[in-house]
Description:
The chain has helices at residues 4-9, 17-26, 59-62, 76-85, 90-93, 113-118, 134-143, 210-225, 249-262, 275-278; strands at 43-48, 51-56, 102-106, 124-129, 149-153, 159-160, 163-164, 166-170, 172-177, 200-204, 239-245, 263-267, 283-290. It has a single domain (4-149, 168-295), classed as Vaccinia Virus protein VP39 (Rossmann fold, 3-Layer(aba) Sandwich), CATH 3.40.50. Strand 10, helix 8 (210-225) and strand 11 form a beta-alpha-beta unit. It has 10 helices and 13 strands. It has a 7-stranded mixed beta sheet, with helices on both faces. The protein has a two-stranded antiparallel ribbon with strand order 1-2. A two-stranded antiparallel sheet has the order 5-8. By secondary structure, it is α/β, with parallel strands linked by helices. Bound molecules: S-adenosylmethionine. The site of S-adenosylmethionine (SAM) has 21 residues, from helix 8.
Amino acid sequence: MASGCVFDRLGLEILDPEEETFLLFSQHIPSQNLGFVDPKSTTLDINVAGKDYVIHQSPTILNRPGSTTGAVVWKITPLVADWLARSDNLLWTSGILSPSSNVLELGCGISGLVGLVLAPLLSRYTLTDQSYVARLVEKNIDENSHLQTSSKPSTTSHKRKGRPTVVQSKTELRFLALDWELDEVTSSLTGDDKAKSFDVVIACDCIYNDTLIQPLVQTCADVCGLRSADENATDKPAVCLVAQQLRDPEIFEGWIKEFSRYFRVWRVPDNALTEELRSNPGFVVHLGILRDAAEIRNPS
Length: 300
Ligand SMILES: C[S@@+](CC[C@H](N)C(=O)[O-])C[C@H]1O[C@@H](n2cnc3c(N)ncnc32)[C@H](O)[C@@H]1O
């Protein structure tokens, strides 16, 4: 099914970023203690979609000078992982996500949790962040690898009568360092000669600092823009999913104004979210489709 259908189901496109900010911040937004799951523990047991993940995190790295917020898990992320794992999620029912999807996550943090949960359901999942998360995210991928097998049809010719052989394969989940402020986005990020672009780009709780807004949005646009140069890709546009915890109206408005310059934007309505995401009034998910180059707006 074409991804256009999902946007019909999302309701009205956001045409006025200031109005979206007003609407979201008119509701009561409870304090979430910044939004860490638990900033003091070095290990978290997290159940998502019926599987128990053990996640190693680092309060020590979190407290280092500099920006190391990805050293611990943030609350919205397990909820987004759980929502995305459901077969009735609108990204699956609309065909934006499918078993052949190639997904890239920005600012994944040390857990890699969304990738751990989604990778067995997809073709390939690339986790990215700054290099300081590499050691822990790779440890978390490794230690949760027993949860990473998926049943995929075999590509070999060994078939039982009339039925494709189903093989238990290790999923394609890997981490790459990608700094929004320093690194160039190229098709080599896919790590696959046949796929030169991504179907979906995900960012969870990456909007909290105004100096990061422009490089983050530019990176989202550059990754989604790989689609137009990929002659093997389907005609479906890449979709950018941004999940965030609302904290500061100025930061949010800065992000949505910048994001709207490059992307057509929709907010996922409450009735398409899980109860857990819905019941946290400060958690929101937006979807964007890159505008054509001629449509990209000048800064206001
Ligand atoms: C609040 S944390 C969220 C981490 C993770 N997504 C989660 O929700 O648990 C924000 C993430 O953005 C990443 N980040 C900040 N600046 C970045 C940059 N310039 N390039 C790449 N990632 C960056 C941080 O390293 C961190 O992992």
